[in-house]
Amino acid sequence: MPHHRITFSDMDPLATMERVVGESERVVHGVGPDQLDSPTLCTEWTVRDIINHITGGAMYFAMVAEQGSVPDEVMEKLLGAGDNLGDDYKGAFDEAARRFRAAFRQPGVLEKTVKLPFGEVPAAMAVNIGIFDVSTHTCDIAEATGQQMPDMELLETALEVGRQIIPSGARGTGAFGPETPCPEDAPADKRILAFAGREI
User: Fold this and answer.
1) Residue 152 in 3-state DSSP?
2) Alpha helices of the chain — where are they, by DSSP H?
């Protein structure tokens, strides 16, 4: 059966990112407190670590959209070793998602140039990076906590985005290792994890 997806050229990045954030909220709310210390396929991180990462990432991208750039010390807290969750991981993620949505609903936001850790890029590219990164990490959390990812069309799109934005030379430098083997007819959540270098 062919894989159904929204093609990269036809994709509305903001609408797609809204769906990604919605799926992330669903999965984060499906995590029980007793699962936060569970290991994940992103081997250096527990479930809590990944929720912390996507919460900080959502807040970071919101601030970038609002202000164009984020001070280094704030970026380090949000994307580095800071605790972005406190005692309420669901509430912290919900607040970051709310601010992200508000920031990217600003008129003309995709026409902005924003400063990311590796340089200045169009805001549309920043959204595409978020689509792939957050989709992948949401699959990490779901896999580690026994949850399902029903929106396969969204994951097909996120995988296509990943293939467009991640050059092979960027592999092995951080969150994404070399692509691992995965059958072509595997579900999209398995293929996106394999593309990101997870051993599935």
Assistant:
1) helix
2) 13-29, 47-67, 72-79, 89-104, 123-145, 152-165, 188-195
Of 105, 94, 149, nearest to 15 by C-alpha is 105
- Encode pLDDT of 63-77 as tens digits: 999 988 899 999 999
Question: Rounded distance, CA 57 to CA 37, Å?
Answer: 20
CB 91 within 8 A of CB 174: no
Nearest to 133 by CA among 192, 77, 92, 75: 192
DSSP 3-state of 121: strand
Cα gap 143→41, rounded to integer Å? 8
Query: Domains, the chain, ranges and CATH?
Result: 8-29+39-163 (1.20.120.450)
Predicted local confidence at residue 43, as pLDDT: 86
Q: Identify the H or E element spanning 116.
A: strand 113-116
What type of residue sits at position 127? V
Task: Give the Cα separation of 180 and 194 in Å (integer).
Answer: 5
pTM: 0.90
- Residue 132 to residues 142, 151, 189: CA-CA distances in angstroms? 15, 14, 12
